[in-house]
Structure prediction request, 303 residues.
Amino acid sequence: MDPKQFLEEVFRLVIYSIYPLFVLYSNFVFLGLFVLSKNVFPHSAVLIFFVIIKILLTFSILYFVLLSNTDSKSTQDIFPLASEFKTNRNFKNINPFIADTLLEKSIEKTHICSTCQTYKPPRCHHCSRCNRCYLKYDHHCLFLDACIGFHNYKFFLQFLISNFLYVVFYTIVILLEFGMEKQHTTSITVNVIIFTVVAVGIIFVTFQTILVQFKTLPNNETFIEFLVINEYLKGDHSHINVFQEGPITEFSDSKDRKVLNPYNLGLRQNLKAVFGSSVLEWISPSFTSIGDGISFVKNTDSE
Prediction:
């Protein structure tokens, strides 16, 4: 491993370690304020705060583990090699006089990743950092060091929201206690200041990420599709190859992103496609997204 690769791996490890270390450190600060030093809250209030914080933390960690488990979800693991895929088509029940023509046309319409050499369905894209293709690829999250796609997008959103609530609530509780008690030891003061700076940074990054996702989620767009449609509406058609299907591939003159995105089924159906059909499924730490990540319902299917 050359020095550049070594530094990149060290950087990835440091970034990836921020969240686990912050969780441990926040618990250290909490215990220092409420257990190891005199506190001004009633004991019942401290217990309630502790239970709420642990519930939020449990869900955050659970979602964090689930969204990170994507090693076996790339197209290299899901699909056979492109050469295998092309030759193993089942045409035994088709007129042999037209089987060759059908095979030729189907191969032409089969998108293959030039790097992975595997089948590349619509909305599937290659991650240059992981060197793999993922279904309904959204982006590579630097802070989590994980590719966000069809198999973990729901967990990613759940983690963002639960972690945001956890850090905000934790920060408010600690700052309230710190402000109500006038005298603190130097060590407690320093630790509260460090915790607050790190917490504010995490809250800012998480909130900005949530805002971006709340721009794409209602329209059932991935982050890549969101950027491409924005550029397309400005007149830049250089990235239309991102879409394998839909009006954009035919250079539509429409300026309505609901028309340009063939996967926009309306707000309610778009949310169901990601989270599932019921409120229980929305918060459930289980995969409830609709579909298989290979083919998607389009807003022209009824036509």
In short: The longest strand covers residues 125-127. Confidence is low (pLDDT under 50) at residues 102-108.
